[in-house]
Amino acid sequence: MGTPFIYGRIADKNNFTNRKKEVELLKRNFSGLVNTIIISPRRWGKTSLVNRVAQRLAEEDKSILICQVDIFNCRTEEQFYLAYATAVLKISHSTWDDFAASVRKYLGRLLPSVTFSDMAQTCELSFGLDFKDNKMTFDEILDLPQTISRDSGKKIVVCIDEFQNINEYDDPLAFQRKLRSHWQKHMDVCYCLYGSKRHMLLDIFHNYNMPFYKFGDILFLEKIPKEDWIEFIGRKFSETGKDISEELCGMIADRMKNHPYYTQQLSQQVWFRTGTTVSVEVVDEAFSDMIGQLSLLFANIIDMLTPRQINFLLAVADGITNFSSKEVLMKYQLGTSANIKNLKKAATEKDLIDILPGNRIELQDPVFEYWLKYIYRTR
After folding, report:
1. What are the structural domain ranges in the chain?
2. 215-244 tens-digit pLDDT
3. Looking at the domain that runs over 19-220, which CATH code has it been given?
C-alpha cells in the first residue's frame, strides 16, 4: 500500500488539502480573466493550488484553456520564449502533428524547427522549439495566447511558475516592460504569475517603480489552518486502515507550524511507523528522525553565515520583535541597531526568513527553527 501523504511534488485531487477559499477565488479570477499574482513562502503549495484550479476548470468549463509554463530552468530571454511558445501551442493539441501544424501556422515567419521525442518508458510526447534566427522579433510569441484565443473562440489562462527568474536575465527591467506592454493588451487572456522567491516577487509586483506594479490581484497565500490539517491527517489514516486521535493530528500540525510540506512529511513518517494505532512515542520518534536527517543540511546553511547573521536567526527563532533594543542587541551580540536592516536583508535574500504583515519576522523553515533553538544552541 502506498503512502497517502504527498510532499515534494504536486498534490492533486484527493491529496490536495483544503484551500477552499483560495480555490474559489482563483477559479473566479480565471473565469473572469483577472490577472493574479500568488505570493507565499517556498513549499506552501502554490503550484498545487494552481494545478487544482486548472483541473477543476477543465472539468467544469470547456470554454477556458489553461496553459502552465515552468521557467525554472530558463536563464535567458530566448529560453523563456522557447518554453512559453511550446507550452502555449500545446494547450489545444494532443498529437505532435497538430502541434507542428500550429507552429507552422503561428510562428512560420520565425523559421522554427520542431523536434519530437517519444519516450517509450512514459509514452508521453515532448515538444521543443529551436529558433534558427534569434535576431528576429519575438513579439509574435508574446501575442500567441491572444492570437490562439481569437482563432479558437476560447479564453486562455497562462500560468507561469518561478516567474521571479526573469530578474536573472541580461536586462530584466526592459524584458518586464516588454512583457507588460504585450500582455496588458490581451482581451481574452489572463495571466497567473507565481514563484518560490517571495522577496523577489514582492519587488516585481509591489514596487511602484517596476513595470508589473498593479498588474493584477495579489493573493498572499496563508498557511493551512490547524483544524483543516486535523481533518485531513485523520481521514488519510482512516482510509488506510490506521487510527490516529485528533490530539495527535494536532500535535503533528503544531510541530510543523502548519507548514504544508513538512506537515505532509511528518504525517508520512508517522504513517510508515504505525501498525494500527498512532502513539505519542511514534510521533516523537518520527520527528526526531526528521531532525537527524536534516541536521547536515542545516549545518551547511550555518557554515555560510556570519556569527551576527546566526545570532539574528536565533533571535527570530526566539520570537524577538524589537531587534533594536539595547537588551536584544547585547543579548544576541548583534552590534549596533544600524546592523539590523542589513541582517534582515541578508536573511531574506537567502530565503531564511519571511517578513509578514505587521512587519513580523518568521523563519521560513520550522524544522530549521527547532534545530537552531534546541540542537545548534546546545552544542
Report:
1. 19-220, 226-287, 305-376
2. 999 998 888 899 999 999 999 999 999 999
3. 3.40.50.300
